[in-house]
Design goal:
Blueprint (H helix, E strand, L loop, with lengths): L3 H14 L7 E8 L2 E2 L4 E3 L4 H15 L10 H15 L6 E7 L4 E8 L2 H40 L4 H21 L8 H8 L3 H8 L8 H10 L5 H4 L10
Antiparallel strand pairs: 1-2, 1-3, 1-5, 4-5
Helix pairs in contact: 1-2, 1-4, 2-3, 4-5, 6-8
Length: 243
């Protein structure tokens, strides 16, 4: 579901958009013997400028939903709201428009009131889940680093464990560094460029093939513990074909 900052920003945008212009969405569909049997049709009775604002924000949110189909992203977001409205703690009423009891078919209409507010609330839910996920990921990295530190202080139990921990440590540093920039895609070759080391040395370092304290080891650690982007450490742009 992406990171918490994305959902926090989107929730604020939905809240800003709803000032005095919220609306109700209507979902009509057929149910055959207890199972939805048709593609739902959504009706959004609102001013064009309100719908334009909602459409842009809804599509932005839908792109981050897991397994979102390659279809109308606004409908994907509306269906996410509908799922929350019908399975969440506060459930919306569903009206029966028509019924054919002999055939077991019902024509139903559901509503989502205050769509913009509901959207902001859903974003807050996703934000909370992302915060929890980010916290657990960072705790796991910290735990792994403490295990490594304890091994380094107390000494390895055997030779194989020593090799495994040396190999693992660079990956923990890499993961922690990348986690500091959740909204950005930091390129590994840019890290290498900032460290003044070639990509082949990076692969050897991750694989535990380089000695602790070697020039490449110290160079990569300097970048990954700096808390800075590669471009902040080395102003000169990386040549496009540099390896």
């Amino acid at each position: 579901m992406n990171n918490s900052e994305f959902w926090r920003s989107l929730a604020n945008d939905f809240q800003s958009a709803r000032s005095g212009f919220d609306f109700t969405a209507y979902r009509t569909y057929f149910n055959f013997k207890g199972q939805d049997s048709s593609t739902p049709r959504w009706t959004l009775p609102a001013e064009k400028f309100v719908l334009a604002e909602f459409d842009a924000l809804a599509r932005r949110g839908a792109t981050k939903l897991a397994n979102a189909p390659a279809s109308n992203l606004t409908v994907v977001w509306l269906e996410a709201l509908w799922e929350e409205a019908t399975t969440g703690p506060v459930r919306q009423a569903i009206d029966i428009v028509a019924r054919d009891e002999a055939a077991g078919i019902m024509h139903l209409r559901g509503t989502i009131q205050n769509v913009l507010r509901a959207s902001a609330t859903l974003c807050r839910k996703f934000e909370a889940e992302a915060v929890q996920s980010e916290f657990e990921r960072l705790r796991q990295i910290e735990l792994q680093e403490r295990i490594i530190d304890s091994v380094n202080v107390e000494g390895p139990i055997d030779k194989q464990q020593s090799i495994d921990n040396k190999r693992f440590e660079p990956k923990a540093l890499r993961d922690r560094y990348l986690a500091h920039f959740p909204e950005e895609k930091i390129k590994i070759r840019d890290i290498c460029w900032a460290a003044g080391q070639h990509y082949r040395e990076w692969k050897r370092w991750l694989a535990g093939e380089l000695k602790d304290g070697s020039t490449p080891d110290l160079a990569f650690r300097r970048v990954l513990t700096s808390g800075k982007r590669p471009a902040e450490l080395k102003k000169l742009p990386r040549p496009s074909k540099w390896e």
